[in-house]
Design a protein that fits this description.
55% of the residues lie in helices and 7% in strands. With 391 residues, the chain is an alpha/beta fold. It folds into two domains: 204 residues, Alpha Horseshoe (Serine Threonine Protein Phosphatase 5, Tetratricopeptide repeat), CATH 1.25.40; 171 residues, Flavin prenyltransferase-like (Rossmann fold, 3-Layer(aba) Sandwich). Strands 2-1-3-4-5 form a five-stranded parallel beta sheet, sandwiched between helices. The termini are far apart. About 5% of the residues have low confidence.
Length: 391
Amino acid sequence: MAAERSGDAVAIAGAARHVCDAMFHRGNSREAVEFATATASRHQRDLVRSSQGLSVLGMLYLKASLAAAHAEHRSDVPGLLEAAGDAAERLGVDGNALWTAFGPTNVSIHRVSALARMHDGADAVAAAAQIEQTGLSALPRERRAAHLVDVARGLTQAGRREEAVTKLLEAEREAPEEVHLPSTDPAACRGPAPTRRRFGRRTLARARRPLWTSRMTDSRVLYLIACAAPPAQRIRTGIEKAQATGWDVCLVLTPSAARWLDEELLELAELTGHPVRTAYKLPQQADVFPSPDALLVAPATFNTINKWAQGIADTLALGLVTEAIGLQLPVVALPYLNQAQAGHPALGRSVDLLRANGVTVLLGGDGFIPHIPKHGNVDAYPWDAALAALS
């Protein structure tokens, strides 16, 4: 490329951030992270010598942080944001060198965006509250609007739907094009901005009717806890089957499953009549779910089964199921795993321990039969067997 031939580190890094964007928009998030960080590392010594260099260096790290969040490499995100923050601190101001709008405020709004992408809604809202309004006001209106949409996503994930709608209306006034999705071209509908616009368009379309309504009925309450396995993509089937047998379903997703179903969360909230929960609430927040009468973990992954048996509660999903054993609630687990995973010695020990403590694990027999690796059949997933075990 011309920038590389020039030997100018600022030009090379400036071009690289646009290449990183293009890779991200094409769905190559992991490659985008590697490309951005490699370019930053290779040219950092030259880039830190000028405000323009610091600005493009910082933007490379910010682009990489969002790509890492999208690619489910959440462990990379704090380091990338810290590297961007170091560049912003050296720069010392909210600038706009080479139209980057880079500075401490831009780092802060990318932190909010990354947290929302990882479905850490409460943390995203808390991070947004720390940003000074003067810094936001100095940003281009499109950046401000995009930030407001990210805050709205965090509020939605935290169950604060009315506040989310207010933020989206603010974003719409700032820059309607950041809220609505004008293109029907599939190639233009990938990446962070189209995803953000889909969220904004769908949420505002529902603003004049309840997103969820309390089901004040005598139905039994079922917490359906879904992990990141292929049947999670058919979670609507499980919900509808449970509702047909009289259950009031509250859906809980592991963080990875939530990323798989990101664009369906609002529709799933409408289907269940409850917000979809993915993370622990803050202490001061009210619980948006009624108390459960039973729990169904489906699909239950190899990872979740083993962590559950060990008493690890590092996600809301695991916290609920570990606590359910102590509360002596009816709990059914319907695994989804392959024969190689089923052959690992840890799985048998974990299943035996869970069963010994009252959990119905439907593995083998009339439950789930492990499949040959890469040959799973989602259509054959036995939802009915799980619901029969609950009755």
